[in-house]
UniProtKB/TrEMBL annotation:
Organism: Halarchaeum rubridurum
Upper taxonomic lineage: Archaea, Methanobacteriati, Methanobacteriota, Stenosarchaea group, Halobacteria
Superkingdom of the organism of origin: Archaea
GO molecular function terms listed in the Swiss-Prot or TrEMBL record: 2 iron, 2 sulfur cluster binding; metal ion binding
Cross-referenced InterPro entries: 2Fe-2S_ferredoxin-like_sf, 2Fe-2S_ferredoxin-type, 2Fe2S_fd_BS, 2Fe2S_Ferredoxin, Beta-grasp_dom_sf
Stated family: Belongs to the 2Fe2S plant-type ferredoxin family.
Manganese found in the keyword field: no
Stated name of the protein: Ferredoxin
Keywords in alphabetical order: 2Fe-2S, Electron transport, Iron, Iron-sulfur, Metal-binding, Transport
Pfam families with a match to the protein in the record: Fer2 (PF00111)
Annotated ranges, domain 2Fe-2S ferredoxin-type: 29-120
CDD domains: fer2
The protein's required cofactors: [2Fe-2S] cluster
Length: 129
């Protein structure tokens, strides 16, 4: 079953870390964070990342659950996430900034690392509902 390691963007922001830092997850591992902010999810075949996080009792942001807003956005740091049809993110955001929507996203590699709660990034603000 694919594993998704997650880190809360609010922690990145609060700590003054850089989202583009290659050592972001090493820093997080050394920071003594709560499981809500940093941990791992096993995502069953055919499940979306958001619903899997919710099934584990986590309260990740969402709104439409249909690929039409930026509320559930995350940034992929390692691995790959495939999305169902979405029309809200630009090609550049998907291909270069590695933004993925967790409500319609499933792991496409065995190990994935994401920064969830990425809706707080400036360039996504105008699509948060
Ligand atoms: S909740 Fe709107 S795109 Fe995921």
């Amino acid at each position: 079953m694919p594993t998704v390691e997650y880190l809360n963007y609010e922690v990145v922001n609060d700590q003054g870390w850089d989202i583009d830092d290659d050592d972001l997850f090493e820093k997080a591992a050394d920071a003594g964070l709560d499981e809500e902010d940093f941990g791992e999810l096993d995502v069953p075949e055919g499940s979306y990342i958001l619903e899997t996080a919710e099934a584990q009792g986590y309260d990740w942001p969402f709104s439409c659950r249909a690929g039409a807003c930026a509320n559930c956005a995350s940034i992929v740091k390692e691995g790959e996430i495939d999305m169902d049809m979405q029309q809200i993110l630009s090609d550049e955001e998907v291909e270069e900034k590695n933004v993925r929507l967790t409500c319609i996203g499933s792991p496409a590699t065995d190990e994935v690392k994401i920064v969830y709660n990425a809706k707080h990034l400036d360039y996504l603000q105008n699509r948060v509902i």
